[in-house]
Amino acid sequence: MFRRLTLIGLGLIGSSVARRAMQHGGIAHEIVACDASESVCARLGTLGIAHRVEPDPTLAVRDADCVLLCVPVGALGAVAAAIMPHLAAGAILSDVGSTKQSVLGEILPILRPDIAFVPGHPLAGTEYSGPDSGFATLFEGRWCLLTPPAGTDANAIAAIEQLWQRCGARTRIMDAAHHDRVLAIVSHLPHLLAFTICGTADDLAGETREEVLEFAASGFRDFTRIAASDPVMWRDIFLANREALLEMLARFTEDAQAMARAIRWGDDDFIVDKINRGRAIRRGLIEIRQA
Ligand code: NAP
Q1: pLDDT digits (tens, 9 = 90+) for 177-197
Q2: 27 and 152 both lie in a single domain
Q3: Is residue 103 lining ligand 1, measured as CB closer than 6 Å?
Q4: Which of 17, 93, 110, 281 is the most interior residue, by most CB within 10 Å?
Q5: For residues 89 and 3, what is the distance between their CA atoms, to the nearest angstrom?
Q6: Range(s) of the domain holding residue 160
């Protein structure tokens, strides 16, 4: 599909794309891997998940017909600015960042007219990071949302859709602002809650804190899995999607207060209704195989 696909940032997401592309054969003839970290580049040499490892991004993108940025969203603008003059004429630039308005805001002002930019976000991940955490089936059956700005070349959009479909994902085109609101509720707020609840548990007095760890029931354990996520990546996401996240947090806080009131006044119906709505959402997820 592509002659040369350059991946920049070979952590969980970038290395998963690399593994898939190396196995699939129908994604790119040559995979070039580039990472800012010396230790990641050294590791890539032994993992064998790219045809070539090139630490210098300006050299890594040379003659690539597709460049996929897989770095934390806080680093995307600087990486795009560094490679922009070195991209091949007609190349497709894409990314996997978890927030889309911020990425468009940083890249559109510096985008060359002969480069098509097709922002993307695969809704797949784990709490692990780094090149060893990736795996070729990460995107299987998952969504990849694309938020191309108006006027983007249709062939470039179709090519990035194909890339993700060959990685096993389903694709959907979406407006960037809508994407950020949806992701604020389904991903960013749950992470905020997980980091916060673990912080609250950690603030408890010594003896209680030890018991939290010793007797962690499944509810708390599930929060700790999410809270194990990468701090740089999540700091960047919270700051880049500030407005939508704060709006969802305000709505959540109101709803949590309503629940507190129902508990205080023994409002059985309110409590049972809320729990049933949660159960229905879980059943729905299982039915559409996204659980
Ligand atoms: P990750 O495992 O931490 O990998 C990021 C990689 O990028 C690291 O090797 C990092 O090196 C490298 N890097 C950082 N700054 C760089 C730069 N300026 N130039 C080149 N390489 C650089 O992160 P990830 O989970 O794969 O996430 C990558 C992107 O995917 C983020 O934008 C994130 O929002 C998005 N995403 C993540 C998930 C998820 O669940 N993890 C899901 C969907 C989308 P260092 O380690 O040395 O910093």
Answers
A1: 999 999 999 999 999 999 999
A2: yes
A3: no
A4: 17
A5: 14
A6: 2-173
233 Cβ below 6 A of ligand 1: yes
Helix axis angle for 189-203 and 242-264, nearest 10°, is 60
Residues 162 and 34 in one domain: yes
- The amino acid at residue 171 is T
- The end-to-end CA distance of the chain, in Å, is 32
Query: What length is written for the chain?
Result: 291
Residue 97 beta carbon below 6 angstroms from any ligand 1 atom: yes
**Could you tell me the two tokens for 283?**
């059943």
Which protein residue has the closest C-alpha to ligand 1 atom 17? Answer: 36
Q: Whose Cα sits closest to atom 4 in ligand 1?
A: 11
Q: How many independent structural domains does the chain possess?
A: 2
**Same-domain check for residues 204 and 128:** no
Is the model's pLDDT at 283 over the cut of 80?
yes
Looking at 148, 173, 198, the residue that finishes a domain is 173
